[in-house]
Amino acid sequence: MVYLLGTVERLSQSIPVIHDPAEAPFLRTIEDHSKQGYDGLTYGETERHGCMGVRQKGQAWLSVLWVLMAVTLVACVAGPTQTPSSEITGNDGAPMMLVRQGEFTMGSNRSFAHEQPSHRVTLDAFYMDKYEVTVGQYTKFLEAMSLAAPPDWNVMNQPSHQNRPVVNINWWDASLYCRWAGKRLPTEAEWEKAARGTDGRIYPWGNDPLDRLRANYGKETWDNHAALVPVGSLEFGQSPYGIYDLAGNAWEWVSDWYDKDYYEKSPSQNPSGPEQGATKVLRGGSWYANLGYLKSTYRFSLAPSSRDSDFGFRCAKTP
């Protein structure tokens, strides 16, 4: 008869982490031994023999450590739990912020009809670019892909504009950049959660009124790209997840097709918009937009080929 000796600590240290139970048939063997031991237990006098045990039919011994070892091995099957980092760096060098899994309120019952009804949505965790994609980042993309530049590129691509959002971008441009960077466009639901968090706030920073310290909006002319402010300039306008410029500066393309009645039939788990449509959704307002367009629930849409001097984007990524 062989007895298990030593402490539970030394035993657990000697066990490798197993990620696939199919690779460890001995787990079934241990389980069977444990069941056999328990089936054969009798009550009465016990004695000490190496490790503390209990007498079994046929005078065999079931060591308590058999049970402990089985529990330890089963716990090791899944390995350690991996918690996503709160901030990562994307392949394009852009910082990305974690938006954790959970439920939030999407839409508003006190606004435009296409923002209604207010409804609860649950999303898996995702990362969102901390800033809108800049002229400097887009320059690297164009060079790497040998693509034609968007309109007014010579005006935008100046030393003083490298850290301002790139604009004159259509939906196809934005989607291609995100794929090149190993990312994707956010869904409309992801964008709204990243902007308003889980407390139903009106703006990314809360319910306080708009001001110039929080958002870039209400300007009349593009001013050769100077109407846009460098990303990350407006610290007081951050969302609950530390994401900048989700109100104003540049409208942001998201992945969804637009349907004004989509909220009435939207799934509650990870909605991704209609399967088809004529226009794509933009969110967040811009340097040109008025107050109502900067609310985190406001929805705007245009044909995916549309470009303008206040149309930009940012990317998302699944952990």
Could you give the topology of this structure?
Blueprint lengths: L7 H6 L12 H14 L8 E2 L1 E5 L5 E3 H14 L9 E3 L5 E5 L2 E5 L12 E5 L2 E4 L5 H11 L7 H4 L14 H10 L7 H9 L54 E7 L22 E4 L16 E3 L8 E2 L3 E2 L2
Parallel strand pairs: 9-12
Antiparallel strand pairs: 1-2, 2-3, 4-5, 5-8, 6-7, 8-13, 9-10, 10-11
Helix pairs in contact: 2-3
Structure commentary:
- The structure is a single chain.
- The protein is α+β, with helices and mostly antiparallel strands and 319 residues long.
- It folds into 2 domains: 8-77, no CATH class; 87-317, paralog of FGE (formylglycine-generating enzyme) (Alpha-Beta Complex).
- The chain has 7 helices and 13 strands.
- It has helices at 8-13, 26-39, 64-77, 135-145, 153-156, 171-180, 188-196; strands at 48-49, 51-55, 61-63, 87-89, 95-99, 102-106, 119-123, 126-129, 251-257, 280-283, 300-302, 311-312, 316-317.
- It has a 4-stranded antiparallel beta sheet with strand order 4-5-8-13. The protein has a 4-stranded mixed beta sheet with strand order 11-10-9-12. It has a 3-stranded antiparallel beta sheet with strand order 1-2-3.
- A hairpin with a 5-residue loop joins strand 4 and strand 5 (95-99).
- Helix 2 (26-39) runs antiparallel to helix 3.
- The radius of gyration is 29 Å and the shape is globular.
- The chain starts with 7 loop residues before the first helix and ends with a strand.
- Mean pLDDT is 83; it is low at 1-79.
